[in-house]
């Protein structure tokens, strides 16, 4: 009996891994890199250039389609940015009806910073902070921008603020703490 159990024990994980790989290889199912506890960038598929992922239909549609809500466009811009497609992320944010949300401003800052325009990124982050000072994700990215500039004291101020928002166990705190300790990782 234990031989059967051992055989199944070894085969089930392999079968599940195979199924996961098969799903990941489906057309249009490439997953962007993650990076945020409450965001869906890790699970939103990326689409070809000029397209946007529409959650309702679960399809890639032309980015000029008017029935894709700003929330989907904003989330998709972040997915593109996390996948390293920074200019496309900015282009997607340019299609928003309301570009002045805390998320849109934060993601614009993120993509801009990743394109090497750190000071411009900081200005977008500060606009997001002005809309919601308790938005931990923007505090994390603002702190990372300060690390890039070598302004560790300002990064640590953001870390302290994040701690007051969500404690030391939230992803934003952990990620910024790591960036401060190991700046080469950002």
UniProtKB/TrEMBL annotation:
<dbReference type="Pfam" id="PF13414">
    <property type="entry name" value="TPR_11"/>
</dbReference>
<dbReference type="InterPro" id="IPR011990">
    <property type="entry name" value="TPR-like_helical_dom_sf"/>
</dbReference>
<protein>
    <submittedName>
        <fullName>Tetratricopeptide repeat protein</fullName>
    </submittedName>
</protein>
<feature type="repeat" description="TPR">
    <location>
        <begin position="102"/>
        <end position="135"/>
    </location>
</feature>
<dbReference type="InterPro" id="IPR019734">
    <property type="entry name" value="TPR_rpt"/>
</dbReference>
<feature type="signal peptide">
    <location>
        <begin position="1"/>
        <end position="32"/>
    </location>
</feature>
<keyword id="KW-0732">Signal</keyword>
<keyword id="KW-0802">TPR repeat</keyword>
């Amino acid at each position: 009996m234990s031989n059967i159990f051992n055989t199944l024990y070894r085969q089930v994980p392999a079968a599940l891994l195979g199924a996961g790989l098969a799903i990941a290889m489906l057309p249009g199912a490439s997953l962007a890199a993650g990076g945020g506890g409450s965001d869906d960038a890790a699970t939103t598929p990326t689409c070809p250039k000029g397209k946007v992922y529409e959650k309702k239909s679960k399809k890639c549609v032309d980015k000029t389609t008017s029935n894709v809500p700003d929330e989907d466009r904003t989330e998709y811009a972040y997915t593109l940015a996390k996948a390293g497609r920074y200019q496309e992320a900015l282009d997607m944010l340019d299609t928003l009806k309301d570009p002045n949300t805390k998320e849109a401003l934060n993601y614009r800052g993120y993509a801009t910073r990743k394109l090497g325009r750190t000071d411009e990124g900081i200005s977008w982050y500060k606009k997001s902070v002005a809309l919601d000072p308790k938005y931990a994700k923007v505090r994390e990215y603002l702190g990372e921008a300060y690390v890039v500039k070598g302004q560790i004291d300002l990064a640590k101020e953001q870390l302290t603020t994040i701690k007051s928002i969500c404690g030391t166990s939230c992803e934003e705190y952990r990620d910024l703490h790591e960036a401060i300790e190991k700046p080469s990782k950002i």
